[in-house]
Amino acid sequence: MSLVRVHNFSISLDGFGAGEGQTLETPFGHAGSRLMEWAFETRTFREMGLHGTTAGSRGVDEAFASQWGNGVGVEIMGRNKFGPQRGPWQDEEWKGWWGDNPVFHTPVVVLTHHPRPVLEMEGGTTFHFVDADPAAALEQARALADGGDVRIGGGAATVRQFLEADLIDHLHVVVVPIILGRGERLWDGLEGLEERFDIEATPSPSGVVHMVFSRKAAPQD
Amino acid sequence: MSLVRVHNFSISLDGFGAGEGQTLETPFGHAGSRLMEWAFETRTFREMGLHGTTAGSRGVDEAFASQWGNGVGVEIMGRNKFGPQRGPWQDEEWKGWWGDNPVFHTPVVVLTHHPRPVLEMEGGTTFHFVDADPAAALEQARALADGGDVRIGGGAATVRQFLEADLIDHLHVVVVPIILGRGERLWDGLEGLEERFDIEATPSPSGVVHMVFSRKAAPQD
Ligand SMILES: NC(=O)c1ccc[n+]([C@@H]2O[C@H](COP(=O)([O-])OP(=O)(O)OC[C@H]3O[C@@H](n4cnc5c(N)ncnc54)[C@H](OP(=O)(O)O)[C@@H]3O)[C@@H](O)[C@H]2O)c1
Ligand SMILES: NC(=O)c1ccc[n+]([C@@H]2O[C@H](COP(=O)([O-])OP(=O)(O)OC[C@H]3O[C@@H](n4cnc5c(N)ncnc54)[C@H](OP(=O)(O)O)[C@@H]3O)[C@@H](O)[C@H]2O)c1
């Protein structure tokens, strides 16, 4: 069975995966770019073409960042990661933050209570808008993954749901030494989560701490 | 000017410094001993005589734990660290969790809205019950410290107040890889705290991550 993985999910010391007030100009709300700065410096993120043009680092941050694509056949993301619109779609011209040729190059399942037609992008990315609980969404994603692993791309509300449903095998969380004070919390409702995972922490010279949660038991199904 | 320091303050991944439901049998509420287990294994905590009799570790956990007493002339603690009673004292026989000869061996200022007479214990510990805001409590503590540093001993509500008032020079926080889900949060109300501190993270083989916050500017006064 393919694995369900989270990579590069960045939270503040107080546990927020995004700030308050997401808009077109501020995809992370009042957090600005602070949660992702460690990643923007890496070779992997530079090669996505969105975050500067110099070569990018090859240290421990890159070692972790580079894992996100290996063997992944599909991403599942929440509707708020896809864009800043809320409620029924006002503007179906919106095609995500990532331009005409998005960085994913696989099918992407966008969870939403407001389904809309499939969006085919350049470079192999297709956005599928799906209204389903985590288990059903995972089944649909696996059907699109061509045998590859499933990446849960965030945001916090989405990762949390899959953790609650005990569907995640590998969770890479990056703790950034800032206190955001408000936003979307990752850990809410997950008391006792540590019992299901082996946990390893690795600090980076950049100041972040990489935490890897590896599921103790094999996936149940 | 003497320094104001926090040592060995242990929080869960979701930021709680104690669980819910503190009682005489469970000083950390539903957290049980999980927040402090890393410390109980160290030589410093073993020598306090409260947590087992074998020799104790001398690795990175001990290196941090052992800083707790060096040069400290007084502790300030919250009333909930002192004991499980709430509201007006029902039982003035209660003398803290630490027996007749407490581990402090210095004056200890206990913050409370319900002052009571000074308690003199064996071994140099005296408990002073003080109703004062952080700045005034610090002044009283310094007068008792005989030139030594001031340790802020917790719990979360107390550390948080002194951080809000920008009175802390050195903060050692230990992040324990558990999700408590409920209890007293350390970081609430401290948005932007990182701007005032240099922050360093060191993981331990025990699984915890030591975080040291060193104040950027010299104390203001
Ligand atoms: N920290 C990181 O590493 C990271 C990673 C990715 C994204 N982000 C940031 O995180 C923020 C978004 O995170 P978020 O926690 O606010 O939201 P999110 O997880 O991206 O999306 C939540 C929304 O998705 C829809 N949804 C989720 N589960 C569903 C289900 N089972 N069935 C139907 N619809 C479902 C709902 O929208 P509707 O009901 O409106 O359809 C829900 O409000 C953005 O600011 C983004 O930039 C951060
Ligand atoms: N994680 C750790 O490393 C660590 C360290 C120490 C303790 N703890 C645990 O933390 C828990 C206690 O923490 P907590 O956050 O609940 O409470 P706390 O900080 O120990 O005490 C808070 C109480 O102290 C009094 N107080 C605080 N500031 C005051 C002020 N400026 N003026 C007057 N009174 C003031 C108030 O009590 P009244 O109004 O009732 O007088 C307040 O409710 C305990 O479970 C303890 O075992 C954990």
From TrEMBL, chains A, B:
Domain spans labelled Bacterial bifunctional deaminase-reductase C-terminal: 8-191
- Alphabetical list of SUPFAM superfamilies matching this protein: Dihydrofolate reductase-like (SSF53597)
A Gene Ontology molecular-function term?
A: 5-amino-6-(5-phosphoribosylamino)uracil reductase activity
Q: Which GO terms describe its biological process?
A: riboflavin biosynthetic process
Quote the Gene3D superfamilies the UniProt record gives: Dihydrofolate Reductase, subunit A (3.40.430.10)
Q: By its UniProt entry, which InterPro entries does this protein fall under?
A: DHFR-like_dom_sf (IPR024072), RibDG_C (IPR002734), Riboflavin_Biosynth_HTPR (IPR050765)
Q: Which domain of life is it from?
A: Bacteria
Q: What is this protein called?
A: Deaminase
What species was this sequence derived from? Pseudarthrobacter enclensis
